[in-house]
Request: fold
Amino acid sequence: MNRIAECFELKRQKGQKALIPYMMGGYPTLPDSAAALEILAEAGADLIEVGVPFSDPLADGPVIQAAGQQALANGCTLDRLMKELGPVVKGLPVPAVMMVYYNIIYQRGIRRFVEEIRDNGFAGLIVPDLPPEEAEELQKAGLECGIGLSFLVAPTSTPQRIATASRCSTGFIYAVSLKGVTGARDHLPPDLPEFLQRIRSQSDKPVAVGFGIAQPWQGQTVAQMADGIIVGSAVIQRMAGENGLKEAGMFLREMRQAIDR
Amino acid sequence: MSHPKEWYFGEYGGRFVPETLMPALEELDAAYRRYAGDPDFNRELTELYREYSGRPTPLYYAERFSKELGKGRVYLKREDLNHTGAHKINNTLGQILLAKRMGKKRIVAETGAGQHGVATATVAAKFGMECVIYMGEVDMARQALNVFRMKLLGAEVRPVTSGSRTLKDAGNEALRDWVAHVDDTYFLFGSVAGPHPYPVIVRDFQSIIGKETKEQILAKAGKLPDYVVACVGGGSNAMGIFHPFIHDREVRLIGVEAAGRGLATGEHAASLGMGKPGIFQGAKSYLLMDDDGQIKEAYSISAGLDYPGVGPEHSWLKDSGRAVYQSVTDEEALEAFKYLSLTEGIIPALESAHAVAAGMKIASGLKEGQICVINISGRGDKDIFTVAKETGVSL
Reply:
């Protein structure tokens, strides 16, 4: 069992749900993003998702787009990101997974990329623009290097596609809660329970729900239906100010309390 | 899991998009397969081409241009004479018929120079569909005339402020809109790029250019051309005129990219000439990027060529050697723009002027009896202000 699967199994045994914050490597600055890893872990994260900034992030809304642009403007290259975050990731009490657009993996070389993130302590990969049909080589490298892969399923996914994504995922399945890009919403999609039912009928893997979860009540509601929740833009937003990292930590604590209630 | 072969041209193409869009692309693919060979669909499209857009467009023998330059004959495929002034409408008419049959109510599209946006707004108006066009803020300032045209046609033009605020970012934003409104919205993509099946759909609708050219040149000259020349940004007009000639090995296919201020300056849009294969906006193809794979901004005097990617079929044609890709600088394109205006009384779009510039070099080396066809993909009215500014004239 890989570290991601173990993490979900442990939560299940405790009767708890996994809290997965998303942060952007290199944002607000590279050293701050390294510090953020530890702060988020301390604040109750079970798994941390680390975004790699990309010039053309198709699946992301304005908050994560802007964070990525700032990280790139700060000179956050892949090498610098690994160098700065790698040692911290290795020392974390919880696993970290990388969220990265496929061109960055492809340019580095698929096998080399997977080896590098393994050597830097990452446990898994999420690639938002890579459907299972295009993932053959990455799956092979992931299996050989012990890097978990989480595929995304969306409310538009057919039962057959959900089954495929589940079969190809090692670790957890990433359920995109809504039709749209990342970003805070003030409501939950009304068809979410039905969507999660559809996933459960096709899959026995842990399901983490992301996109649009920004407030503790939303986290609490979704956590009752899923195995974990992913909170991205709402975390990033709080990192912007002067005491940003502290505020992000406080926010995550609130979210933790809400989902453990 | 592996991908179906038909998503690819050799090793280029594919479908690299968020999962939300995968079922929508499957739906589009199924609809296209169903209607591509449907007699009613094709009858309606052919009639629109004829009655609405003014097809067939002429294949015009540019006599003065030919004789001043060399011994051969140069023909111009007059896509500039289409309704809305460019080849873009060949594709938007086809896709709007598809959207209508798929029961979609709302159209979204990206635009760079505004030609595809205008062609999309035009067909949306004609078919009474809601239309949202995404356009980079920078392009909106450069092409204010086209922004106003789109608004007159009833489209909402949404400024894109992310990234480089040009065509690539408009494409991202249109895709994001589609992700959010996938049930009732049709994404009317304007080039032979993007995820499968767009490169196939757009190429098929644009290949009316090449089909007509082939018939016309056989009727006029009794032989196939020795050269077919077209400009390449995303590559839709080039793919449209190349495609029917691909199996005619004696016809040399020449694609012309924008060398901007010069390939050595880094300010250009020569994805095939200077780029590497990578994944961008849903497909694997040549593109301009840094070592990490961050997409670079492209530059060209012509907003329609100013794109860091290119259609995957062009990448395949390049690697296989079936088509040859050259590039032309801003300066050479401006020279060609003026030359065609003065010798033939035809003001080409700056995009097409790149093809004209390459065509001039070819024309000067033609032997007697040889034929070169240049695709004049659009007319130059939209570029008058840019050309005036570049040549130091204030209007």
